[in-house]
Amino acid sequence: MQLARRDNDMKHLALIAVFLELASTAARAENCGKSREYLLGNLSGDLALPPKAYEDLFKTCLATAAMANVKDAYILKDGGIAVVTKQDSVAATAATLSQFCDANPRATLHFLTRKELLQTKSIVNVIKISSTSSTSCRKIKGNS
Question: Is a pLDDT exceeding 80 seen at residue 8?
Answer without folding.
Answer: no
